[in-house]
Amino acid sequence: MTSPLFSRTVTLLALLLAVPVLVILGSLVTPQPELWTHLLDTVLADYVINSLVLALGVGVFTAAIGTFTAWTVARYQFVGRTLVQWLLLLPMAIPAYIMAYSYTGLLDFAGPVQSQLRLWFHWSYGDYYFPEIRSLPGAILMLSLVLYPYVYMLARTAFRQQSGSLLEASRTLGLTPRQHFWRVALPVARPAILTGAALAMMEALADYGTVQYFGVTTFTTGIFRTWFGMGNQLGAAQLSALLCSFVLLLLYLEQWSRRKLKFYQQGQKQQEQSRQPVQGGAGVRLLLLCLSPVIFGFLLPALQLVGWALERLEQLWSADFIQLLINSFSLAALTAVVTASLAICFAYAKRLSGHWSLVLPVRVAAMGYALPGTVIAIGVMIPLAALDNSIDLWAEQQFGIRTGLLLSGTLVALVLAYTVRFMAVALHSVEAGLMQITPSMDNAARSLGESPVGVLRRVHVPLLRASVLSALLLVFVDVLKELPATLLLRPFNFNTLSVRSYELASDERLADAALPALAIVLIGLIPVILLSRALDRSNRGAT
Amino acid sequence: MKFWQKSLITAAFTTAAMAQAAEVNVYSGRQEELIKPMLDQFSKDTGIKVNLITGKPDELISRMQSEGRNSPADLLISTDVGRLHRAEVQGLLQPVDSKVLTDAIPAHLRDPKQQWFGLTKRARPIMYVPGKVKPEQLSTIEDLADPKWKGKICVRSSDNIYNQSMVAALITQIGEEKTQAWANGFVKNFAQPPKGGDRDQIKAAAAGVCDIAIANTYYLGGMFDDASDKAAAEAVKVFWPNQQDRGAHINISGAGVAKYAPNKAEAIKLLEYMVKPQSQSWYAVTNHEYPVVADVKWSQRLESFGQFKAEQVQLSTLGELNAKAIQVMDKAGWK
């Protein structure tokens, strides 16, 4: 029934992408009793508890903010709605560690907010209580503010694709709008919301920059402490493997929670869902509610960055800076296309066969999202260099030529690492879309003589346009912000905006770091705007 | 000879010449801003092209290790001695025999086996708020574990390599047991749970959170150059601890030539270039680090922090004791 060539190729690709994660898991074979005794006695409990609280907190907050805003924008017509619906995507463009730096700058004891309060009320240190931003709750807040757009984007697409007849049916059965939301719309959109929240939680587990700066000890800080501080790379890999098991559990729970959920939308919506107009004060209230995540997640930190950047404008027009822009942009665009294409193939192959030999490597590869970028980079670097070195040795023995390093230290290694790291984002997005297409579509197309690959090309891809665009956008922005893998795998003399910005920020020169950071945000905005318009159009086109 | 033959031969020779054009590949743990200007000057002076990758020293070491004998790296630059030692132990460096280097750099600031060389010194003194603390009250790092400093000290997380090296240096000098006892007391004196970087500790002291901050001098120097941080920098003064006994804690940034360096001669040339007086004073002016070469003039800012006696630990031992230092800090509850 399935095309063997297609599924074999896809299985091979999935296995290839699973290698880096398998390299990490392979570390478990060599036990390290001494290290683990020390960790258990001292810090491991902190790592586990803090990581779990962080991930859960981020999951709950992103789900709440994302669902609320998505529902409001999808269901109500209020003043400023068209603007707000893409403004809500903006916080995604801000790297979490930059957010952490700028909020610390604002809210710190020595920052403008507290200084002003002291000036007004003649307080001094110890006279008053002020919440500490550099703490676990602070980290949850920072990460939630930059990660809620994952939920928002997926949930908005899901709410929009719910056909108008669904609402009519619940009205006919006597449900109030509120009941319709809780009992019909929310359950139907649940896979999308859970997917978004799961992505946010994975990203939170992998975060290093924010937690490290805030002094919160989590698994990731533990991994780097073990590796760099104790010089124990194996031990660090084992901690990463443990982190992987968390993620596996998370993914399993997500799958399990929707085991009985199968909702298919009909390919054509019978009727466009009309938005309920909300006028006057109530409309303004909705606008302000929707704007608040934008203000806290984008406007405030961006203003702080602008303030810093203005002090350092002279770096702007160096030829070097323009090269940084080009590097960052092209790398992100290339990776987005590669990753999204692979994700479509994987998701479709799973739909066709669902055999474990395919599902397992895809699942393993997708775990890369929850691992810190450095760990993935090591997982890519080790097998790639081993491959290069054995080719070199073989060529020398056979022909007396040395080939040197063919792939290591090239952009291929870098794109491969990004693909492993961000496959989950693209895959979840595409799968969520694919799940809503009823299998009777496949059957109809096949019975009309289309091949499986033809069904993908001529039926699914056009229907999936919105999901594929989200996948492209998410990966693009993620690569733009990505730092650790870039730092480790890049070729000679190759720099990106995030590398530049991080180097300066990690040297605590925040003012110098602001301009490249701002450039990341601005380049990130271009696809956010373009794609959100494209999403609008494809949505209108589908009706 | 026909024209096309001629041009073919010319082309072949040109490419061969281009392939041989001198270059050197640098893996730098020192970030681009703080190395590139000097490398550019080196290229200008010598005609040797420099290819650069920056990153965290440990990651660069991992990269060299996995690249093996095909690694393009010629020179590994690190911002602390522990990592150079680690690279040496893993067999990634090779000994360099250069009179220029041994003459310029004091023996305790380079590897006894000549595999790495210190290029700048980085000092980690005590910084205090005048008015709250009198300099007479301060004496040694050990004294900061005394209960009289309860709630008065700001220092960053033990994740940081500067703290790890500082504790490792204590272990070599006063032993593990005493260091553990010291760390237990020191942690009890923290004004707040460790967070932020070195600059943040200085800012916290300036704002009144604590009376004493531990930070590297170049962070303080950098704050004077930064409009938004200048006021905080002016609020603290530098105190050099342990001047009556072993001296204040220092670390070094340094470099070593890679074992499989394809351009060894150029790499040595670059190393030697880095200890020239003009390069040494460049570090001092750009990033407020202390030169390793004796008679190089300090920047005005460094002069203002005062002269000091530095500890004379054999720096390679710090690398060996780093893991032990972390365990000590973990046990003391130093976050």
Automatic annotation (TrEMBL), chain A:
Database matches in InterPro entries: MetI-like, MetI-like_sf
**Location(s) in or outside the cell:** Cell membrane
Q: How does it sit in the membrane?
A: Multi-pass membrane protein
Major site of localization recorded for this protein: membrane
Q: Which GO terms describe its cellular component?
A: plasma membrane
- Keyword hit for Transmembrane helix: yes
What is an example of a Pfam family matching this protein?
BPD_transp_1
* Keyword Transcription regulation (UniProt): no
Q: Which GO terms describe its biological process?
A: transmembrane transport
What transmembrane ranges does the database entry give? Answer: 47-71, 83-103, 136-155, 234-253, 286-310, 322-349, 369-387, 399-420, 463-480, 513-531
- Where does the ABC transmembrane type-1 domain lie? 48-255, 325-531
Organism superkingdom: Bacteria
**Keyword field:** Cell membrane, Membrane, Transmembrane, Transmembrane helix, Transport
| Family to which the UniProt record says this protein belongs | Belongs to the binding-protein-dependent transport system permease family.
Q: What is the name listed in the Swiss-Prot or TrEMBL entry for this protein?
A: Iron ABC transporter permease
TrEMBL record, chain B:
- Where does the source fall among the domains of life? Bacteria
Residues spanning the signal sequence: 1-21
Sorted alphabetically, which InterPro entries does this protein's record hold?
A: Ferric-bd
GO MF, one annotated term = metal ion binding
- Tell me which UniProt keywords the record has, alphabetically: Iron, Metal-binding, Signal
Name the Gene3D superfamilies for this protein. Answer: Periplasmic binding protein-like II
Which residues does Fe cation bind?
A: 218-219
The keyword Signal is annotated on this UniProt entry: yes
**What's in the GO CC field?**
outer membrane-bounded periplasmic space
Q: Which family does it belong to?
A: Belongs to the bacterial solute-binding protein 1 family.
What protein am I looking at?
Fe(3+) ABC transporter substrate-binding protein
Q: Which organism is it from?
A: Rheinheimera mesophila
